Amino acid sequence: MTSEWTDEYVGAGRRHREGVRNTSVESTPTIEIDRVTKRFGDYVAVEDAHFSIGEGEFFSMLGPSGCGKTTTLRMIAGFETPTSGRIVLEGADVSRTPPYKRDVNTVFQNYALFPHMSIFDNVAFGLRTKKQPADVVRRSVMEMLEVVRLPDMADRRPNQLSGGQQQRIALARALVNRPRALLLDEPLGALDLKLRQVMQLELKRIQREVGITFVFVTHDQEEALTMSDRIAVMTQGRVDQIGTPIDIYNRPSTAFVAGFIGTANLLPVRVESQSGDSVTVSTRTDSRFSVSAAGQSYTAGSDVTLMVRPERLVPVGAPLHGEGSGAAVRATVTSLVFQGPVVRCQVTTDLGAELVAHLGPEDDPASIGIGSTIELTWSHEGAYLVPEAIAADAAGVTSMDDDETAE
Q1: Which pTM value belongs to this model?
Q2: Quick check: 251 and 22 in contact, CB under 8 A?
Q3: Which residue in 83, 103, 203, 304 is a FRET match for 318, CA 20 to 30 A apart?
Q4: Where are the domains of the chain?
């Protein structure tokens, strides 16, 4: 597949893959959200959002219902106007530029394919609107159908395709116009779980192949972690943290982010002292143990939150991945659920906090019964200090409902 279209975008994808991906955008950003606030009457939907999205980046906005992610996407698309601040596209302020004059395209959850048109005509619609020559239209459409791996579907109608195929055609129709950025508003929400998981990988493959900026809105943590180069986690109209999936999962900046991304066991602790990269903390029961500082500095006497992911929590005596922390939590087993690779073990501590551990075969889960007493521990590197205090009654396992709908 060789043409001006594919040379331009595959080249952009190659340049992006060869670059260093981190929490900042080092090259000229494709999109800048510059101190943007959006109000609907007295309601603040987005408050002082400020971040950049780089060329060829897969950037996700993730958060629960009402957090402002869809409103932010609509402002990038031009369907909403910021109350204050600027939307900048490739250096130009487009805050008040109508959608049809912005070099971005949007794919919605319902795909919005024209049912009376063939797949070819659906994909060709934008090019024909721009009055492109017939030979250019045909070549570009067939190239895009190759990219989405549906070249044999050109003569079919949308109702003859599966949900996943319709989604790929919606992508092809948006991408064939060669936008500088593609905006995706919950595009996988209408698919069943298995197909959604397959399409996550397909969507990432397509983005890498065409090499343009994708801005993806979702409330599904797995989608964001699977596909994104960087993620902006939003809550109550604000951006809590922006980072790579690894940073967001392993080093959350707030208790909300820790609980929203996957499942987290959170316990309030107090900093006793710090020596190099090791922090000594104490719990409400006055037990003391060490935690990695992860490059941060902590003040003695400050209240912070200890996060331990379920896969890091193991019974005392089970193999540890790394040096021991000296910590142990005594608890009663309340639930054991077989989940294939792991057994989900829920416990209640002596102070009433509910915790969850994911036990593998090496942890001998068959020897543990409901109602039994167990001591759980973790490695020195298996816990992380979130620089934010939580109330004692907020201690325990936190996770967000996967059925949460997006706004």
Answers
A1: 0.84
A2: no
A3: 304
A4: 4-103+179-248, 263-397
